[in-house]
């Protein structure tokens, strides 16, 4: 009998010669009473109440059967429109194999993130026709995101085993070229964001290890194909769904099942669907700025072994020399790498502050230093309260936090009192902490901007500015002393990724919470009557980066009027009067176009109350007779009456 | 595991899968007799059963199970083989 070497999903202990291997989502907590809870949710009278319960059930570790069940319950809901707090998304999956088994898991993973994903499955093997045929049902569906889920089989089939490297490259180039024109066509037609799946390697060895040295060997062709695919995607601004990587991590038998392929041409085995769905939803959420932003770390038995308060500096286990010490060090190293890519680090620990900080200052084996931690809360207060303080202090939403703690009681407490905080179910052994945290995919990215690379420095610079504010006589004094200047102009291609990121990540200074894909932004920027503005703020401490953007478009019914479709500003520069200078700039630019007035909506959300008085403070007046849906308020500015505001911000130039 | 125990488990799987607690399976039940148990959900049922029992059915068997009883028999066969292999 073959031993089960991978986690099988079965709970009954019955085994056979070949067992079903499933990727499991170990970072999520197990549900105690899934069946009962699901049926109770279905008995909830109001659809919105039921949806809330289903969304919270989706946060548990669900296997294949639970996922299908939850999706069925979701499908029974009669929702006329997305309730507040839920975002609808239309996703088309175009494929060269059967992908129907993936749709329930994609919807459930969406629910987990409060995304209501409407999944359109293209005709089997018809991905080309779906894109090219103007009468396809895809047109009616009008996807916002299109996922190409393709098999590598057709490419491999076209490569003779004896092909030279040049021949292989030619075949791959032809295939990639065709794919790129499909991407372009899909974008032109639907204005949709494109996600391309990597090719999973289901090939069997022919020469053994020597396969890697034979250009025409299937596994070699596939590796090269994935390389070329990702190069093309990077050039074309297409996002990648890297199932090749994940299926390697889990083992190909967890992802591909020859039986499923033979029975129904399923390239991705149904038991892998729950994880597949989660991988897709991560990207969709990341596109909308919903990835996590801050890693909050516990200290004792998380960042090091032992308890500093009991064991002292000499007693805790950290660093090279012991396996346990290296395990904790590995978590520190991973956290430091996350910091380098723009994730903010914080500490939340039940400890005496001085004792805890001393480890960071004095322990020679510590990789993380006190300066790496943007918010350090070591005290004896409730951790839920401390997490709220961290979010407030960093000016980010509580739902941007990931809380890593070895203590199951603390984890349960946070999950219960702050359900928006992500709390990975850490394994018992510190050796697997990093794997658990990285598998969870909390920090999924859709871009790496220069702001990301410098975020840690930006936070440090802000600390310096705060110190300056403390020593200033008055707010005006402080602002004058900063010697601020702004670089502004229409959206530029080089800043596109950052602009998209700002529109999608900003929750506080966000007037309408309208989110845009990079395709939509490019579209806006290209329209002749649309005014786009981006603002970069500099001061004597440093460059704050590109921190604000505005889209003004013609109104439907009035000429010489522009409507602010949306306006966002990074919380990093709140209180610097940039909004006043930005409006000065917008008014000047609009006057040059002969515009007479601006209208603007403020659509209140749970997070943007900080700008509830923005428009009146800028001189806009309320448009009382107009009723706008969503509880929005509508504002009007007559440019003839506009008097430029005092701002202490000089113009450093126009352009990027 | 007795036939009845296996049948009870299969019933539970199908009830969950189709979210229909009124489903009653017997050894003689055929797929066409159960509302909504179409070919797509048959594959889902097979996958869920394989996962829960920790087994893999043969492709040829999946295509030709005449009724639920045949699935029960195959699962019972698998479990006895396993006991044998363990011994």
Q: Which descriptors would you attach to this protein?
A:
heterodimer, A: 656 residues, alpha/beta, Rossmann fold, 3 domains, 26 helices, 18 strands, 41% helix, B: mainly alpha, Non-ribosomal Peptide Synthetase Peptidyl Carrier Protein, Chain A, 64% helix
Write the layout of secondary structure elements.
The complex is a heterodimer of chains A (656) and B (87).
Chain A: H1 34-42, H2 47-57, H3 64-76, E1 87-95, H4 103-112, E2 115-121, H5 127-132, H6 137-141, E3 145-149, H7 153-157, H8 165-190, E4 193-197, H9 218-236, E5 239-241, H10 243-250, H11 252-255, H12 258-264, H13 273-287, E6 294-297, H14 308-315, H15 323-340, E7 344-350, H16 353-362, E8 375-379, H17 383-394, E9 401-404, H18 408-417, H19 433-439, H20 450-453, H21 455-471, H22 475-482, E10 484-489, H23 496-505, E11 509-510, H24 518-526, E12 531-538, E13 543-554, E14 561-569, H25 578-592, E15 597-602, H26 614-617, E16 621-622, E17 633-638, E18 649-654
Parallel strand pairs in A: 1-2, 1-3, 3-4, 4-5, 6-7, 6-9, 7-8, 10-18, 14-15
Antiparallel strand pairs in A: 10-12, 11-14, 12-13, 13-14, 15-17, 16-17
Helix pairs in contact in A: 1-2, 1-3, 3-4, 4-13, 8-9, 21-22
Chain B: H1 3-18, H2 39-53, H3 59-64, H4 68-86
Helix pairs in contact in B: 1-2, 1-4
Coarse structural class of chain A: alpha/beta
Number of helices of chain A: 26
From the spread of the alpha carbons, the general shape of chain B counts as globular
CATH architecture of chain B: Orthogonal Bundle
How many β-strand runs of chain A?
A: 18
CATH topology of chain B: Non-ribosomal Peptide Synthetase Peptidyl Carrier Protein, Chain A
Low-confidence stretches of chain A: 1-17
Rg calc of chain A: 27 Å
């Amino acid at each position: 009998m073959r031993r089960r070497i991978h986690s099988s999903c079965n709970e009954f202990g019955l085994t056979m010669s070949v067992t079903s291997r499933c990727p499991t989502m170990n970072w999520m907590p197990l549900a105690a009473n899934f069946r009962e809870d699901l049926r109770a949710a279905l008995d909830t009278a109001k659809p919105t109440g039921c949806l809330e319960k289903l969304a919270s059930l989706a946060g548990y570790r669900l296997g294949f059967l639970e996922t299908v069940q939850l999706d069925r319950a979701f499908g029974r809901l009669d929702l006329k429109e997305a309730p507040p707090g839920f975002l609808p998304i239309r996703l088309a999956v175009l494929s060269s194999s059967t992908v129907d088994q993936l749709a329930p898991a994609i919807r459930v993973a969406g629910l987990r993130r409060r995304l209501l994903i409407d999944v359109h499955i293209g005709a089997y093997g018809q991905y080309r026709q779906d894109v090219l045929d103007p009468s396809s049902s895809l047109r009616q569906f009008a996807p916002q995101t299109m996922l190409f889920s393709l098999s590598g089989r057709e490419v491999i089939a076209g490569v003779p085993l004896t092909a030279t490297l040049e021949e292989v490259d030619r075949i791959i180039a032809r295939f990639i070229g065709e794919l790129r024109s499909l991407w372009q066509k899909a974008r032109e037609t639907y204005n949709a964001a494109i996600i391309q799946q990597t090719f999973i390697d289901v090939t069997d060895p022919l020469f053994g290890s020597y396969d890697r040295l034979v250009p025409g060997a299937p596994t070699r062709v596939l590796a090269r194909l994935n390389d070329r695919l990702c190069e093309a995607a990077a050039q074309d601004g297409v996002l990648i769904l890297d199932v090749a990587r994940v299926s390697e991590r889990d083992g190909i038998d967890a992802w591909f099942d020859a039986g499923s392929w033979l029975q129904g041409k399923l390239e991705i085995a149904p038991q892998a669907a729950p994880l597949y769905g989660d991988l897709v939803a991560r990207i969709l959420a990341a596109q909308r700025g919903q990835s996590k932003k801050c890693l909050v770390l516990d200290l004792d038995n998380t960042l090091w072994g032992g308890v500093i308060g009991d064991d002292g500096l000499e007693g805790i286990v950290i660093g090279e020399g012991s396996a346990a010490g290296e395990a904790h060090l590995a978590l520190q190293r991973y956290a430091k790498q996350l910091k380098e890519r723009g994730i903010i680090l914080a500490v939340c620990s039940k400890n005496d502050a001085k004792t805890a900080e001393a480890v960071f200052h004095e322990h020679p084996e510590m990789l993380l230093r006190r300066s790496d931690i943007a918010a350090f809360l070591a005290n004896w207060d409730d951790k839920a309260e401390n997490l709220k303080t961290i979010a407030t202090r960093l000016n980010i939403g509580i739902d941007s936090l990931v809380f890593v703690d070895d203590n199951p009681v603390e984890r349960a407490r946070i999950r219960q009192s702050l359900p928006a905080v992500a709390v990975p179910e850490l394994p018992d052994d510190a050796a697997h902490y990093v794997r658990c945290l990285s598998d969870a995919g909390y920090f999924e990215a859709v871009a790496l901007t220069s702001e990301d690379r410098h975020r840690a420095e930006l936070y440090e610079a802000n600390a310096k500015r705060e110190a300056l504010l403390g020593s200033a006589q008055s707010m005006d004094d402080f602002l004058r002393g900063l010697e601020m200047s702004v670089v502004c102009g229409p959206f530029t291609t080089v800043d596109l990724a950052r602009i998209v990121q700002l529109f999608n990540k900003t929750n506080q200074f966000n007037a309408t919470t309208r989110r845009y894909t990079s395709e939509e932004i490019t579209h806006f920027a290209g329209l002749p009557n649309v005014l786009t503005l981006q603002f970069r703020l500099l001061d004597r401490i440093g460059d704050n980066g590109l921190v604000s953007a505005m889209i003004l478009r013609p109104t439907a019914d009035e000429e010489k009027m522009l409507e602010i479709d949306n306006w966002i500003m990074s919380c990093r520069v709140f209180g610097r009067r940039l909004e006043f200078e930005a409006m000065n700039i917008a008014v000047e630019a609009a006057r040059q176009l002969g515009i007479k007035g601006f209208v603007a909506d403020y659509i209140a959300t749970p997070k943007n109350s900080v700008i509830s008085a923005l428009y009146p403070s800028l001189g806009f007046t309320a448009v009382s007779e107009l009723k706008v849906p969503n509880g929005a308020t509508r504002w009007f500015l007559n440019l003839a009456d506009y008097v430029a505001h005092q701002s202490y911000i000089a113009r450093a130039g126009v352009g990027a | 595991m007795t036939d009845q125990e296996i049948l009870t488990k299969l019933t539970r799987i199908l009830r969950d899968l189709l979210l229909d607690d009124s489903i009653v399976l017997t050894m003689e039940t055929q797929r066409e007799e159960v509302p909504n148990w179409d070919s797509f959900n048959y594959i889902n049922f097979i996958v869920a059963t394989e996962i829960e029992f920790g087994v893999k059915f043969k492709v040829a068997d999946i295509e030709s199970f005449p009724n639920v009883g045949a699935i029960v028999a195959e699962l019972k066969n698998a479990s006895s083989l396993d006991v044998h292999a363990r011994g």
